[in-house]
Amino acid sequence: MGGAAVAVLAAAATRHNRARLASLFYRVARGLHEASVAAAEEEKVGTRSRRRRRRSSSSLLLGPDFPDTWDHPPRAASRTLPPRVAGADYGCTATIIDGKSIAEDIRLHIAEEVCQMKSAAGHVPGLAVVLVGDRRDSESYVRYKTKGCEEVGIKSLLAKLPGNCTEDEVMDSVSRFNEDPSVHGILVQLPLPQHMDEERILSAISLEKDVDGFHPLNVGNLALRSRKPLFLPCAAKACMELLLQSGIELMGKHVTVIGRSKVVGLPVSLLLQASCHCQCYPCLHNKSRGHYP
Ligand SMILES: Nc1nc2c(c(=O)[nH]1)N[C@@H](CN(C=O)c1ccc(C(=O)N[C@@H](CCC(=O)O)C(=O)O)cc1)CN2
């Protein structure tokens, strides 16, 4: 974290400052996603990557239109970085990206930022998760998020509600976290039970604490391109970060994105178009027909 950012944090907690604090969670979640993608890759392929990462700044990814809301310094250029990518060129051969090592680097950097924030501002960021129901996959994702917070010194809070609770009970949890000054980021773990109006609940999250970037205004601002979402969905930003940190040139490329979910496919397409001027072909998904380039 840059000196300027420390000073900003030490100042009174304005709305803007809270957004800066909250972006830390966003980046932790991104690191977690990278780690799990990398773990899956490693299991499947059983290989370590051999190429050096070329660059490492999320603000570079976003460009001037999408500045990172947290004003952090570039990671130390002098550090010897482990190899990141296997595969000699980016032509027709498959390239394996070492997401695990990139994620480790991001986590270390965030831990340092949290430490500096604690000494400068006297408090650490707080992430609140709302988990409804007992889906095993959701429970394990939330466990990873909590563990990720612990590892870097972020305070985590959990509101766990039964699957048969009412939508208003979920709304109450969101409101409580919105009002809690020790909470800077809020995640409502998806999917929610079918009887709930997901959009209503996501819209209730304070824009400045919407670290998932799923609030309709944040999604809309990303789609409009000329506007700045406060947060981006972490899985999508993780995909972009992995590509960029691996030195894969994206500017102006033709890209096919597989999937169009709100969590990954759609925001990846929007990000590729907005920050890299990519031509994205209609997202391939389970209803796609015909041939795509
Ligand atoms: N509030 C949110 N809810 C959900 C999100 C989210 O980002 N915010 N994303 C998913 C669940 N999820 C994290 O919460 C998540 C899902 C999948 C992965 C992942 O890395 N998948 C790998 C496979 C990993 C494996 O099989 O071991 C992959 O798809 O290649 C990370 C996070 C929905 N809910």
From TrEMBL:
Keyword annotations of the record: Hydrolase, Multifunctional enzyme, One-carbon metabolism, Oxidoreductase
Region ranges (Disordered): 39-82
InterPro entries: Aminoacid_DH-like_N_sf, NAD(P)-bd_dom_sf, THF_DH/CycHdrlase, THF_DH/CycHdrlase_cat_dom, THF_DH/CycHdrlase_NAD-bd_dom
Compositional bias ranges of the Basic residues kind: 47-56
Start and end residues of each Tetrahydrofolate dehydrogenase/cyclohydrolase catalytic domain: 97-212
Domain annotation Tetrahydrofolate dehydrogenase/cyclohydrolase NAD(P)-binding: ranges: 233-275
EC number from the UniProt entry: 3.5.4.9
Cited Pfam families: THF_DHG_CYH, THF_DHG_CYH_C
Swiss-Prot/TrEMBL GO biological process terms: one-carbon metabolic process
GO molecular-function terms, A-Z: methenyltetrahydrofolate cyclohydrolase activity; oxidoreductase activity
Quaternary structure, from the entry: Homodimer.
Protein name: methenyltetrahydrofolate cyclohydrolase
Provenance organism: Urochloa decumbens
Taxonomic classification: Eukaryota, Viridiplantae, Streptophyta, Embryophyta, Tracheophyta
